[in-house]
Specification:
There is one protein chain. The mean pLDDT is 96. The longest helix is centred in the middle third of the chain and has 14 residues. Strands 1-2-3-4-6-5 form a six-stranded antiparallel beta sheet. By secondary structure, it is of the alpha+beta class. It has one domain: Aspartate Aminotransferase, domain 1 (Alpha-Beta Complex). Helix content is 34%, strand content 30%. Strand 5 and strand 6 form a beta hairpin.
């Protein structure tokens, strides 16, 4: 959370659905949830689709809506940065919380 706040100071932290997330002009950019074995990162389906190969190259498992980053491995901050930057740019004109 601190890293995102420092790297992307324009994003607004928010707790919704009992999970920390970040928004830009009222639209969802990325969210997180914690499980016993991993940190789940949710950049929406478009972010997963766009970075699917890089997610797999980083050694992370993913579904259509989240990336599982195991606690026993380092976080790939460059991948997180790319996913955030993609969503910020891709949703620049988005007026809804989620993509339609």
């Amino acid at each position: 959370m601190d890293w995102i706040t420092k790297k992307f100071p324009n994003l607004k932290p928010r707790i919704a659905w009992n999970q920390p997330m970040f928004t830009d002009h009222g639209t969802f950019i990325i969210g997180f949830s914690v499980s016993k074995h991993h940190l789940a990162v949710g950049p929406e389906r478009a972010g997963i689709d766009h970075f699917s190969d890089e997610i797999e190259q980083a050694g992370y498992d993913h579904t259509k809506l989240l990336v599982r980053m195991p606690w026993d491995r380092p976080v790939d901050f460059s991948l997180l940065e790319k996913m955030n930057a993609f969503n910020i740019t891709d949703k620049a004109d988005c007026s809804t919380f989620w993509r339609k």
